């Protein structure tokens, strides 16, 4: 079981419990301990893992795999067709891991082209009225606050935190342990470990609270101190980004600083506009 297992759900070895007012296709696969609330609709290509709780009036349809220990609250719609004019009916899917909490009226669309998927990792919290577009890839331990809208092909790394009412443009990559402030317009890649805020969003500093909570602030190793030095070189020096990364590469980098530099290099190569300044 992943370290992101949902602690609020106990392991229960009993047959699935389906409310009489729920509609579950005979072909759907429900494992032990699954609970289906009233008014919920489960399609024929849906597979639900053990001890997952599905609240009232949820719609689960299309090719959808849900792992164990998840909680899905009323009004959520998961696995429906992508909101993409290029979609031609391909049998794409949504894959959801373990221990996730998906709150009221969240929508998660499946991918667009055949063989593709929208994937959610483990231990994520998606608050009410969030939308995840087609081909979105989420890692583990991510928090997305209320009414955030995530466009297609967005990638989020582990333990990112997204504020409320945020708009995230398609093909954006958000790095691990990044924090995006509420009502921010995210139109470029968000570097890992960074605090981003504004309209349009801009890098304001390091996400020191998140870094400390995740044990990167180790006084003996000096990893946080080096990360701050590299961050300052990249975002606050007189050098252009490419030159800053070249200077950083001449140092012996610890994992956090190395991840930051590698992320920025990849972002430059992917997108002519580069990462968020």
Quick tags:
28 strands; UDP N-Acetylglucosamine Acyltransferase, domain 1; single chain; alpha/beta
Question: What would you note in describing this structure?
Answer:
The chain is of the alpha/beta class and 277 residues long. 16% of the residues lie in helices and 26% in strands. Strands 1-4-7-10-13-16-19-22-25-27-28 form an 11-stranded mixed sheet. Strands 2-5-8-11-14-17-20-23-26 form a 9-stranded parallel sheet, with no helix packed on it. Strands 3-6-9-12-15-18-21-24 form an 8-stranded parallel sheet, with no helix packed on it. Among the domains are: 17-153, 3 Solenoid (UDP N-Acetylglucosamine Acyltransferase, domain 1), CATH 2.160.10.10; 216-270, no CATH class. The model has no long low-confidence stretch (mean pLDDT 94).
Number of strands: 28
Q: What is the spatial order of strands in the main beta sheet? A: 1-4-7-10-13-16-19-22-25-27-28
Question: How far is the N terminus from the C terminus?
Answer: 38 Å
Average pLDDT, to the nearest integer?
A: 94
Q: What is the CATH class of the domain at 17-153?
A: Mainly Beta
The helix-and-strand class reads: alpha/beta
CATH topology group of the domain at 17-153? UDP N-Acetylglucosamine Acyltransferase, domain 1
Secondary structure topology:
Elements (H helix, E strand, L loop, with lengths): L16 E2 L4 E2 L4 E2 L4 E2 L4 E2 L3 E3 L4 E2 L4 E2 L2 E4 L4 E2 L4 E4 L12 E4 L4 E2 L4 E3 L7 E4 L4 E2 L4 E2 L4 E2 L4 E2 L4 E2 L4 E2 L4 E2 L4 E2 L4 E2 L4 E2 L4 E2 L7 E5 L2 E6 L1 H6 L9 H13 L5 H9 L5 H16 L7
Parallel strand pairs: 1-4, 2-5, 3-6, 4-7, 5-8, 6-9, 7-10, 8-11, 9-12, 10-13, 11-14, 12-15, 13-16, 14-17, 15-18, 16-19, 17-20, 18-21, 19-22, 20-23, 21-24, 22-25, 23-26, 25-27
Antiparallel strand pairs: 27-28
